[in-house]
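Researcher: Last one for today. Full complex below.
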Amino acid sequence: MSDPTFAPRPTLEAVAARAGVSRATASRVVNGSEGVRAPLAERVRQAVDELGYVPNQAARTLVTRRNDAIAVVVAEPETRFFTDPFFAQQVRGISRELTAHDNQLVLLLTEGAADYGRVGRYLAGGHVDGALIFSLHSDDSLPVMARKAGVPTVIGGRPSWSDADTLYVDCDNRGGAQVAVRHLLGLGRRRIAHIAGPLDQTASVDRLDGYRDVLPDVDPKLIAEGDFTPEGGARAMGELLDHWPDLDAVFAASDVMASGALRVLRNRGMRVPEDVAVVGFDDITSVADWTDPPLTTIRQNIEEMGRMMARLLLRRLSPLAAVDGAPALSPIVTATQLVVRASA
Amino acid sequence: MSDPTFAPRPTLEAVAARAGVSRATASRVVNGSEGVRAPLAERVRQAVDELGYVPNQAARTLVTRRNDAIAVVVAEPETRFFTDPFFAQQVRGISRELTAHDNQLVLLLTEGAADYGRVGRYLAGGHVDGALIFSLHSDDSLPVMARKAGVPTVIGGRPSWSDADTLYVDCDNRGGAQVAVRHLLGLGRRRIAHIAGPLDQTASVDRLDGYRDVLPDVDPKLIAEGDFTPEGGARAMGELLDHWPDLDAVFAASDVMASGALRVLRNRGMRVPEDVAVVGFDDITSVADWTDPPLTTIRQNIEEMGRMMARLLLRRLSPLAAVDGAPALSPIVTATQLVVRASA
DNA sequence: CTGAAAGCGCTAACAC
DNA sequence: GTGTTAGCGCTTTCAG
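Model: Here's the assembly. Have a good evening.
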């Protein structure tokens, strides 16, 4: 049996020969550039079809230095990446935007810092034109690697350092948190607890800051740290109740954690929202709409943020961006919005 | 401000010059081939470090025709891909195996047949050495594209066609289903329903066949088709109960669907397993262990199957595989195992 | 054991 | 408009 791998793929040379033109002309037709007379172009196209010609990307990349591929790097154990709907939505937004611009999404999974070397090599190897990096923890070295590798990058979420030419997309975490807490205050709640995300991520810190902005003198025991999982939310809720059995509201830094908190509340026989009002963050419909009761939460348009990341990167990559006088690119911070359901 | 993108990356030529050797020798050192005298090799390595040299993949690929990258293509709406723990586990297995062999995993997402063209082009463009394709529906054209593109492929799950040189990895769906149903029979159950997966996938058909093997004369109304989601499982359970209010057992073609069925059963006030015994399929711990009651199910080692897919493909790609007398590669069908918990 | 030289397939000046 | 030509950065015979 012949090995299909070794079936030599036709080259541009072959196409040109068959169409009776030069390689250059064939290349022009294949790349859709103007200024090839119609009949010639037609002959080339036909040859392409007959031969089933597909350009060799490696050869093309070698000269153009472009891949039309973008890496998405997630600095998070695969488990959470796959489990948390947050990523799914963001990746979908990215995927759609990239696809619309004929760019291929290349998802690079990391199971932990041990994989960073491999990812760094991949980026430095010039496989992709740019990178979208996610879910940074404060010590994260991925963006540094990308920069060293000369790969333009946009970061999902505000990075912990600040730096004039670091591009990122984030939502107004602090403002959203303030709105959440004020909503609870407006409901007459006075013992408002907070379930924070892991505090090595800026999103968690910003949401905590927003909470503190509104409640400056709050007892530290009203704050517990979760890890953006339902279990973490449940655990935090438990701690909170141990210290403050009579708390009357909880603002959780994510819907997923809020769902865990809800479970604990129910198990302990506390009614939501009568005894304890609960507000989440994210508005992940598959979670917030499904909990019992449905979750009041702070919406951020996650898919749209994914799109924006991709768009920002693509613009950064565009030759136009390098021209003097082109508008400078800057980070994007999107607005959030309170969504009132039954839990608060 | 200087644009980091345009910082020219050092070439092998530069490394060679700095080390005072020829490009050929530098290449040998970089690629770890034998037969370069130690002191020379050392000088080259030092030059590499000092310059921060990383080989240009495009150039390398152009001559070696290898990418050391494997595509994973999922023919499933992103939504399910991200939601269903099944994929997460399989991808993890693949990822680990590929990483161990210094291959990069490139995940290609498709939102539907509209994206197939793009994926086909990507495969044909020679970006990857091979492809792992998942979740085929009977009309699926992805494997055909891969073959046309000359990209060696291993399929996850038995494909609907049969073909001597199509490689796949699957579990013994039919046998597993038989065991599940016999277990239910052994429990004294006599009105055993089945919640099937979408019948355009072989896994669903095979599990249904297994059920029918044991229960050849079953009433068609005891079979309902789901879609591998909890909601689908719930809907199917509803239909089943409408026709057979007194059924005493259900075999669901996946744990995820079983979890939906469990919810419906509870809502209708039926006790599990007293009134209705339930058996799932997959043994996805995050689901089966968490349901109430925990699910009796048929275990397949999903992560290991992912590993096997990767290993099979890598072997297929290895130069050794092309040698005459090399062992022929063949599809792999893994055994399943009954795991008894509380639901049956 | 090391170096010189010939491409891999393609694009982009530059001529014609 | 179209063809000719010179590389892109690397690996790999083939001499020495």
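Residues 173-299 of chain B form a domain with the Rossmann fold fold (CATH 3.40.50.2300). Chain B has three domains: 4-64, 69-171+303-333, 173-299.
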